Amino acid sequence: MSVQSGHTGFLIKPSLFVSHPEFSALTFHIPQLNSSLSSPQITCSNVDKRNGNGSNTRIQYSVAERTVSESSSRSNSNRSSNRLGGRKQGGSNSTTLYSRPSLLEMKNDRVINRARVYEFLKSIGIVPDELDGLELPVTVEVMRERVDFLHKLGLTIEDINNYPLVLGCSVKKNMIPVLDYLGKLGVRKATFTNFLRRYPQVLHSSVVVDLAPVVKYLQGMDIRPNVIPRVLEKYPEVLGFKLEGTMSTSVAYLVGIGVARREIGGLLTRYPEVLGMRVGRTIKPFVEYLEGLGIPRLAVARLIENQPHMLGFGLENQVKPNVEALLEFGVGRESLASVIAQYPEIVGIDLKEKLISQQTLFKSSIDLDPEDFSRMIEKMPQVVSLSRSPFMKHVDFLKHCGFSLPQMKKMVVGCPQLLALNLDIMKLSFNYFQEQMGRDLDDLVEFPAFFTYGLESTVKPRDRLVRKMGLKCSLGWLLNCSDEKFEERMNYDSIDLEEMEMEPSFNMNSLLSPRRDEDEFSEDNDVDSEDDEYV
Question: How is this protein annotated for GO cellular component (predicted)?
Fold first, then answer.
């Protein structure tokens, strides 16, 4: 194909190659020629077209005027360049207007901010080693706000170091809602510091999901609403227990061994730690060990009702070593059940040191030998915790009454309760004995328990009746019986000598008295059938 112009002169034949895969046909611009020039002659040759995707178009042409060719070439080249680069340039402008940091940049920013927060924590004495992986504030200012808030609650840097994860709690989202809820329940603000020291995890809790259900459960255990705040103050860890876990199984086991349902509320109020005890690891082994010593299971239940804190005595590191100490100091194995039933504290204190100390005291003051000391423990195990000052005051009183050292020794061994009675009441009883009853001191030596009976309610009425009837009897026969039994004795023709020898002693059956609600638990429902559940 050729195009000829009427202009004569030399021909310049430049060649231009235009190629782009996005264009399937040639697109070019023919510039306007200078007016001084006539129509140029253009010759096109070597036309090569290939249509379709990725097709190339190649045109070789010649123009009689260099300026037109060069101008056209530059124009086509610029336009082609603009068309090829237009998309990228437009994208670049768009990125500039709507820029977002890359994931790498965001990660680097987090690392830098965390390092600053760590540096701040270290500067105030907090060790951040355990905070790796925990979501923390991105700025030092927010972290400072959390630390300051914890300080206002009374927590020290040491407290925070004991549980540094508390720094992951938001003041507005976590701390304030939880503390507001506790305050509305009645937990005293003055107890917040100790509360959080014992259970800082509460600040992570959800009021609706975690705390409110536990409070509702406690109310269902007959704990009065006004008492629940005291329970939480005493044992804040209870807020972290699951209802279907330890709490429900421990209560169920206690009820199963005979603890009265109506006593559960009072038991948990006095010792809420029971709710956190594992049955198989703690409660059940403790109960079975006491049973093995001879205390009936129902008696154990009664002891737990009265003194639930005994469940907190460590079986291996307290109870068993103390039982061995009692045996070592001469207490009979057959008496262990009675000793523990009378004074459950004896298996939870530092017993051996007390036994050594008390044995030395009794030996130096009334010449008590080890065998008599063990007999005293069997009759009144509380003597192991008797203070020196009250003991010496009672010894001085007996000396003032005219008793010799051997007589005092016999009286104390026969009735150790003498050492724990109110001295003013003992003085009144002794004055009546000496002035109104007209008896010898030997009668008191033989029956020192005289001092344990009420003067107005028992001693005077019976003494007057016996003297009115002209009977001669020992103090034991006069006093060591119930009112009903005493009336029967008044109808005897003679005095039964066997009854005269009776001495007051602990009766295990006193712990086995039936409860009004015991009909809820039959023998078939005893925990023996459920033991496997608490392994």
Answer: chloroplast
